[in-house]
Amino acid sequence: MPEPVIKGGFASPETIAHIAAQKFVMASPLYRQEQEWKQNGILLSRQTMSNWLIKASNDWLEPIYEEMKRRLCKHDVLHGDETVLQVLKEPGKTAQSKSYMWLYRTSGEAKHQIILYEYQPDRRHIRPKIFLKDFSGYLHADGYDGYHKLPENIIVVGCLAHLRRKFFDAMKTLPKERQSDSNAAKGVAYCDKLFHFEKQFASLSSNNRFEERERLSRPVIEEFYNWIEHVNALPNTLLGKATYYAQSQRKYLERYLLDGRLEISNNRAERSIKPFVIGRKNWLFANTPNGARASAIYYSLIVTARENGLNPFEYLTWIFTNAPNLGKPGYASAIEDFLPGSAKIPHKVFIPKPKGTEAEKYAWEED
Q: What is the pLDDT of residue 357?
C-alpha cells in the first residue's frame, strides 16, 4: 500500500491538494468549502481541513520551501513587497492588530522563477534583514524606509511606478480642463517617457539595455530633476507629496540605471502579491500563527508553480503522492526533484497550452 500523506489519516493526496487549490488559487475560504462538502453528503469540518493543510505543509512542503529560499538568495536581483494580515490568536497581541505577509521573488532575468511569501507578526526592518541574510545584490522595493536599513551588500532599487502614481493621483484631483497643462501632468509625462523607453529596450540584452538607458533614459531623468527643482507646491498637497517623494527617493529611483538586468519598477512583486490580497478579501484573517505560516508556504509553492507553467492542483497532488513514499531521509536527499523548475516533474503536471491561435479561434466563430 502507498504511504498516506498524513500518518493514520484518511485524506488522499488529491483531497488535500483540492482543498489547498480551492483556498489559495480560487480564494474559497474553508467555511465555504465545508458547506460544499456537506451539499455533496460529506461531513468534513473546516477544523479538520485546516489541520490537514497545516500537517501536510509541515511534513512535505516546508522542505521544498526552504530549498527554494536557499536558491532564491543565490540570485543577484530580487524584488520585495509586503502587505497586512490579521491573525486572531497571535501571542501578546490583540485580534485587531496588524501582522504582515512579506514577499520576495526573482526578477525577469531568472531562468526559473521563485516567489516566496513569509509571515511575520510585524513590519520591522529586521524581517527582510533576517530573511535575506544570505543574499547579496540588488533588491527592488517601494519607498518603505525599512528596506533602506538593510546591510550595504544589498542595494535597494526604487520603483518609478510608485512615483508616477503619485503624480497621476495629483493630476486627477484637478478639473479636467486644467489637467493637461498642470505640473502633475508634466510629472506623469516624464515617467511615461521613461516607461516607453523600457518597452523599446525589452528585447535587448542586459548589456545593450544598460547602454541604451545611459544614452536615452539618463538625460530624461536629469531633465526631470532639473524641472522638479522649480516646481512650487504646498507640502500637504498631493503634488507637494509627489515632488517630495521624487526628491527624497532620488538615489533609489535612479539605481535601475546601474545594471541592465534591473527593472524600472517593482510591479513584478506587486503582481505576485496580488493572489494573497485577493484571497484575503474572502477569508479575511488567519486564526493562528501556524495557519499563517502554512498559508505562506502554500502561496509560495502555488504562485511559483503557476509562474513556471504548472497546474497547482496537479503539482500538489504529485508531491503528496510521491514524497511520503520516499520516507523523510529519502525525501530530504531528493528535494530538488520536487522544485517547481525540476526536470523530474511529469508532463501531466504542466498546464496545457491552448490549441490554435486567437486569430484561428475568432475565424472559426465567424464561420
A: 54
- Mention every residue, 6+ apart, whose C-beta is less than 8 A from residue 126: none
> How far apart are the C-alpha atoms of 255 and 258, rounded to whole Å?
5
- Minimal CA–CA distance to 137: which of 104, 101, 112? 104
pTM exceeds cut of 0.90: yes
Number of compact structural domains in the chain: 1
State pLDDT tens for residues 222-244: 999 999 999 989 999 999 999 99
Residues belonging to the chain: 367
SS3 26: coil
SS3 161: helix
Q: Which residues, in sequence order, are bridge partners of residue 350? A: 310
Cα–Cα distance, 70 to 198 (Å, whole number):
31
> Does a structural domain hold residue 228?
yes
Give the closest residue to 194 by CA, choosing from 226, 216, 167: 216
CA-based nearest residue to 9, from 322, 320, 314: 320
In DSSP terms, which residues pair with 137 in a beta bridge?
154
Residue 326 lies in a domain: no
Per the CB < 8 A criterion, the answer to whether 113 and 307 are in contact is yes
Q: Which three cell numbers stand for residue 317?
A: 497532488
Range of the domain at 194: 160-258
Q: Which residue has the cell 521624487?
A: 246
The amino acid present at 93, given as its one-letter code, is K
